[in-house]
Amino acid sequence: MGIFGKKKPAVSEQQIKEALSQVQDPDLHQDIVSLGFVKKIDFHKGKVSLIVELTTPACPMKEMLRDQCVDVVKAIEGVEDVSIEMTAQTHRARAIPDLVQGALGQVKNIIAVASGKGGVGKSTSAVNLAFALQQKGSKVGLLDADIYGPSIMQMTKVGKPEETKGDFIVPPIFAGVKIISVAMFTEAKQAQLLRGPMVAQIIKQFLTQIDWGELDYLIIDYPPGTGDIQLTLSQIAPITGAVVVTTPQEVALIDVRKAISMFETMKVPVLGVVETMSYFMCPGSEKKHFIFGKNGGRKVADENGVPLLGEIPIEPVVAENSDKGKPVVISDSNALASLAYNHIAGQLAAQQSIVNSQSDRALTHFKLEWV
């Protein structure tokens, strides 16, 4: 009974759903009820409890969506308190071919991090994006496919594999991320004198003989260029999206355009562009110095109709900590580069969710092209 003997108004599940239908996912452009995000509704003595399941643990709009849900449900007469549990279930964008089913069967998304040329911070970006996604609650793996210049062992100080499961190698784990690199199977100073067929065989082994287990994201550090390795990776692995890394100057953009064209030819969705070495800020100053030019990443992104995921500033701490085997996103969370990589990881996850929501049409097109 209320204060004056009146019963509190009954609140129905339908009322709550109608209220929640006002909340829209800004990336998928539909309300969360129609999208099936609302998994459970309980109402007892004025308190509403909800479970809202998003499409990725790394959703950059998670807190905004939570706040909106609280606001619209609290506005219902008779609701005194709202409790929301935000969960996530990453969706698979593409079917897993039989050839890689044993290794990649539980991997939801496979994302290529690529560039048309070397020296643009591609591997550094692949490493930091992998750890940023892991910090956001995702299960992440990292494959160093840069056969001729593997650097991820150095940047993470991960050990070599020590465990097998049947015919599969179990990847070692560093700071929660599963990692495999060709450097784990060679001597540190040994040159990789390999012809195309040998390289293709190594890549095939990485994609068929590693027990990656359950992952939300497998990040693949592609080698620079658009040759045999890139084609083998894109043909054997069900790549769900690509991130292209560039520096601002035109000499880098020339090759980045080729990398984007390669992914378009392979029917791999380009999730966006990451610009590294965007600017430098002197300690104690807010002024940005555009050492390598300005807005090159935005230019190539706009040309190809894809998002600019973010810009990474030049900071000595990035190189210093990479050399020590400490990715900047886990060694210095307040660094400008860390903040930028964390933002980009959220945008990457959002773009992959958008692609996944459109995957039926994209898959049909891919199969027709390659039959």
* N to C succession of SSEs: HEEEEHEHEHEHEEEEHEHEHEEEHEHHHH
Number of strands: 17
Percentage of residues in helical conformation: 25-40%
The CATH fourth-level homologous superfamily of the largest domain = P-loop containing nucleotide triphosphate hydrolases
Which geometry do the CA atoms define? globular
Strands ordered across the widest β-sheet: 10-11-7-12-6-13-14-17
Q: Look up the CATH topology of the largest domain.
A: Rossmann fold
Number of helices: 13
Radius of gyration: 23 Å
Could you name the key traits of this structure?
371 residues; alpha/beta; GMP Synthetase, Chain A, domain 3; Rossmann fold; 2 domains; eight-stranded mixed β-sheet; three-stranded mixed β-sheet; 13 helices; globular; disordered C terminus
